[in-house]
Amino acid sequence: MSPLKIKKGATSHSAYNLRPNFSDVQEKHTLAVIVDNEAGVLARVIGLFAGRGYNIESLTVAEIDHSGKLSRITIVTTGTPQVIEQIKAQLGRIVPVHQVNDLTVDGPSVERELALFKVEGSGDKRVEALRLADIFRANVVDSTLESFVFELTGPSEKIDAFADLMRPLGLSELARTGVAALSRGA
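Structure (tokenized):
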């Protein structure tokens, strides 16, 4: 009997090779998790991430249904496709979790973040900060003779770009809400 020959470029399939092909490439995913609005739920979700060494890049939580006592947790995390699948599966097993949606793979979504920037300065730096704020469509929400507080809404990349431009002009404080996201369409 002749040995089995495999054509060049073909793959061998075996009953012992049950692992799906996952990439080692790190991917950023936005997860929307619907949970009961009760004490300790957020701690359990965060504990899942901390206990397994997963990183949370952004986290927002708010009640979405007062009568149904439901909250929405939006988590931005990074990991390999295998790690992301593990995170989703483990989140789904937490008892007060009703639904886990991966907005990154479910289709088009809208993501926004709100940030407040305190920029201190005088003279030309003040004028330049106002000019850049106008370009980025940032609102001045507070002004003194020594500083401005700008409010900016948009994708995280827009917030990052504005912060980078404000640093040399006197950015002294920055507060960010984290990502809020919804899937597009029906």
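The CA atoms of residues 110 and 182 lie 5 Å apart. Confidence is low (pLDDT under 50) at residues 4-14.
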